[in-house]
Design goal:
Length: 524
């Protein structure tokens, strides 16, 4: 629903106009008959659009528009006035009026035209606001990656780069401004390399074939070592630019998995960088693509990514939720300070609640009550007078995450399915060399049995009885009609030999199984 303020000193036209504006259900109109009354309404309520007559007593529509624009109010403004001089219309548009319609002819048709223009202008403004929000979040994500990133268009003009790129290669800021020539910047990099020939050949290859993908390693004159890659950015089958990435490997090597993750992030970002350069008429498509790429990045990165407003979690990716032992649905709408240990630095809580951002190390609270150390970088994004805090959270290296369950948690393990033709030996745990059969921990009554094998080695077996079976035994007197255990005894005989235990501490396997069958107890 679009909210509109309609200002007109002709009260009869005011009533008709309100009816015609609201009849299709797209607009809700408030009316007033003077500029002073309109200013009072605007002090109490924000409107999506304003319709005003021009000639009114005390203050006319032009003074009304000047007052709004001088105070920073950018609400779309529409003149609906009597026939005026061309110079008046030009002055109104120069002052920031969005539309000027002269009163003439059929009132119904004219108000339909006003409704059409109001919907067009307000929807365009909403799209621009959403694009600004999307741009801000994307810029925060771009600054959070560890690589230096440079993006250029097909003409070689720089379209974007992050601060990491400038600091890694010590690039002067004036060389990397948006719209600058990338060949000049690449020549600057080349002049600071220890051996620039290979890099020069790669640049020549790119010039001859804009769709080529190149990569390599470079050494600068100060001893730093970088890996770099350059790949074409495509929209469909059309090459729409090129993305360069640089990674400092002077102090440590990156694992193959980390490199693959970074490349995936850059690949997902290439399409987004192209969309940010498209014309305003394609903004709707740009926003949709931005959201798709953000979703890919939040799922692909190993770090936790969350957005919050005034300390309340809006969204959280799966990595952050699993880090704390929750699902993403459980975290949405929760207070972020609830997951920060009270012994963390006070400025952490202040930053989360105010949305000011920054770099912090603090103790996070797991679902099971334990805590662990994390590093967090917060990026505040301004949107519609408020602040969205985008936080990148990663575990401090060398700190283990808490386990969701412990070995004595009491969870009943799932018994492995016996395959057709398998033997009991094949179901023994992987601790077979120790000759010890260990059942998974369950809430049963356990009775051990020691047995000596044919080779003279001792192993232990355990049979267990849960509460449900004990209760069933107590209420039943019918003999157990279980499966024949002769096959099982034969298989066990292959390991321990025939039953020869008599009166010793060892319990014979046959008597052990007989008691098992008699008591209707389960054998694990």
């Amino acid at each position: 629903m679009i909210s509109v303020l309609y200002v007109e000193d002709d009260t009869s036209l005011l009533e008709i106009g309100k009816f015609l504006l609201e009849k299709d259900g797209f607009i809700e109109a408030d009316t007033c008959s003077s500029v002073n009354e309109a200013l009072q309404k605007l002090s109490r309520k924000r409107y999506d659009a304003i319709i005003s007559d021009y000639a009114m007593p005390v203050n006319n529509g032009m003074k009304f528009l000047k007052s709004l624009r001088s105070g920073g109010d950018t609400t779309p403004f529409f003149f609906f006035a009597g026939k005026g001089r061309k110079s008046v219309i030009i002055d109104a548009l120069n002052l920031g009026a969005d539309f000027y319609l002269e009163k003439a002819g059929n009132a119904k048709a004219q108000f339909e035209e006003l409704v059409h223009e109001i919907r067009r202008v307000t929807e365009q403004k909403s799209t621009c606001m959403n694009l600004d929000r999307s741009d801000g979040i994307l810029a925060s994500v771009l600054e959070s990656v560890a690589e230096g990133v440079l993006a250029v268009d097909p003409c070689g003009k720089i379209t974007a780069c992050n601060q990491k790129f400038l600091s890694l290669l010590k690039i002067p800021g004036e060389l990397a401004r948006t719209g600058s020539d990338s060949p000049i910047l690449l020549k600057y990099i080349q002049d600071h390399l220890e051996d620039p020939d290979d890099f020069s050949r790669k640049i020549a290859d790119i010039s001859s074939d804009p769709a080529i993908t190149c990569q390599g390693t470079i050494h600068d004159k100060e001893g730093q070592v970088f890996t770099w890659s350059s790949r074409a950015q495509k929209t469909g089958d059309t090459t729409s630019g090129r993305v360069w990435s640089f990674l400092d490997i002077s102090d440590h090597d990156r694992t193959g998995q980390q490199l693959a993750t970074v490349k995936d992030q850059l690949t997902a970002g290439e399409e987004e960088l192209h969309h940010l350069r498209r014309e305003r008429e394609t903004q709707e498509a740009m926003i949709q693509k931005n959201e798709e790429i953000l979703d890919i990045i939040t799922r692909a990165t190993p770090d936790g990514i969350i957005t919050s407003i005034d300390g309340t979690i809006v969204t959280a990716n799966k990595q952050f939720a699993e880090m704390l032992g929750y699902s993403t649905a459980e975290l949405a709408g929760r207070s972020l300070p609830d997951f920060i240990s009270p012994d963390s630095p006070g400025e952490v809580m202040d930053s989360v609640r105010s949305g000011s951002g920054g770099n912090y190390e603090y103790s996070a609270l797991h679902r099971n009550g334990s805590s662990f150390s994390v590093e967090s970088t917060g990026y505040p994004v301004r949107f519609q007078g408020g602040t969205i805090l985008v936080s990148i959270v990663r575990r401090v290296p060398g700190t283990a995450l808490p386990q969701e369950t412990s070995p004595d948690s009491g969870e009943i393990p799932v018994e492995p399915e016996r395959k057709e033709g398998s033997t009991s030996q094949e179901l023994l745990p992987e601790t077979r060399p120790d000759r010890e059969i260990r059942p998974e921990p369950v809430s049963f009554v356990s009775v051990p049995a020691g047995i000596t094998t044919k080779e003279g080695e001792r192993i232990s077996l355990t049979w267990e009885l849960d509460d449900a079976h004990l209760a069933a035994d107590a209420g039943e007197s019918q003999p157990f009609q279980g499966n024949d255990d002769s096959s099982l005894i034969s298989e066990i005989d292959d390991v321990i030999g025939p039953d020869t235990s008599t009166g010793s501490q060892d319990r014979g396997i046959r008597s052990w199984l007989a008691e098992l069958r008699r008591k209707r107890r389960r054998f694990f």
